[in-house]
């Protein structure tokens, strides 16, 4: 049986968001040999400008 993900909007500076951004940077490095900086301006992901959504499996 597959779990249904739970979607949550979290602050871009939340530890879970920071971990995902670090993983993205690592993936880009392994794929392209370079990466965009993992640093995120949390204000850019705050309504009404944006939103940082994470899918959790429990």
Give short descriptive properties of this protein.
two-stranded antiparallel sheet; alpha+beta; flat; 2 strands
Structure description:
- The chain is α+β, with helices and mostly antiparallel strands and 58 residues long.
- The protein has one domain.
- The protein is 31% helix and 17% strand.
- It has one helix and two strands, in the order E-H-E.
- It has one helix at residues 15-32, and strands at residues 6-10, 52-56.
- A two-stranded antiparallel sheet has the order 1-2.
- The two termini are 13 Å apart.
Query: What percentage of amino acids are in beta strands?
Result: 15-25%
Q: How many DSSP E strands? A: 2
Question: What is the overall shape?
Answer: flat
Determine the mean pLDDT.
89
Structural Rg: 13 Å
| Total DSSP helices | 1
Q: What are the segments in which pLDDT stays under 50 over at least 5 consecutive residues? A: none
Helix and strand run: EHE
Find the structural class using helix and strand composition: alpha+beta
Residue share in helix = 25-40%
Q: Summarize the main sheet.
A: 2 strands, antiparallel
- Compute the number of structural domains: 1
Distance between the termini: 13 Å
For the largest beta sheet, what order do the strands appear in spatially?
A: 1-2
